[in-house]
Automatic annotation (TrEMBL):
Presence of keyword Zinc: no
Pfam families: Hydrolase_4
InterPro entries: AB_hydrolase_fold, Hydrolase_4, UCP037442_abhydr
Domain Serine aminopeptidase S33, first and last residues per copy: 11-118
Species: Nocardioides perillae
Keyword entries, A-Z: Hydrolase
Domain of life, per lineage: Bacteria
Keyword NAD attached: no
Protein name (record): Putative alpha/beta hydrolase
Single GO MF descriptor: hydrolase activity
Amino acid sequence: MTLHRAADPDAAVVLIVPAMGLGARWYRPLLEALAAAGVHAAATETRGHEEGAPPPGRRHDHGYADLVADLDAAARLLTDEVGGPLVLLGHSLGGQVASALLAQRPDAAAGLALVASGSPYWRDWRRRPDDAAGWGAVRLLALTQGAALLARVLGHFPGHRFGFAGREAPTQTRDWARLARTGRLRFAGLDGRVRDHTAALRGLRLPVLAVTLDGDDLTPPRSTDGLLRWWAAADVERHHVSPAPGSGLSTDHLRWVRTPAVVVPVVAAWVSRVAVGPSP
């Protein structure tokens, strides 16, 4: 885990939780931009996608529980090293993992930022105004359940062959497919016990920032709505961002990270408010 430090040693720290199939190195431009904006920034390594790591498969399997445990360890390490307020920033699947950690340990962070992150629950996609017939929802359900079937047969989900994610572990793929089918963040922990994290989140009152991106077809606003329903008691702030014409900035689901100037000011301003805390 690489830490990009801001000029102020007492600044808050943002810990990025990557999207499915992305390693920490993808987030370097975002880390640099956040540090320049006045917050320390780091990104967790995604299990199975670290440099030199064995590829995910039956012999090297992991699920959401492992991703949550990895994030918990990274958050504790970063808190000890930096000392300032810690905020989690979940990108895509990273928002689901970060939410699960906070369901288990609400004091893990001072707040949660969601950028291009949502729930893959197929019924949320039926609510899209541009898809009155609901075919997008049906395609999503077929894709997610088909991915789980492929992972069972092949021992991994070959997302790289479909232009979506990378080579993904079978248990992670099944956990993701279950979420898409049921809308519930429910999976077995490392102790084997199945927990419904969706229910645990409903009473949490943490600050939550949700940033949706214009033109992001993989996480449209209705998908983010679905994830935010888990956070029924949270203090939610929402932003929908678009790049200025001719700016050269991207709001693509993945590429915004490489040109993050449209997102960083929103995140940095919110983090500064969360770090100070509510007024007495």
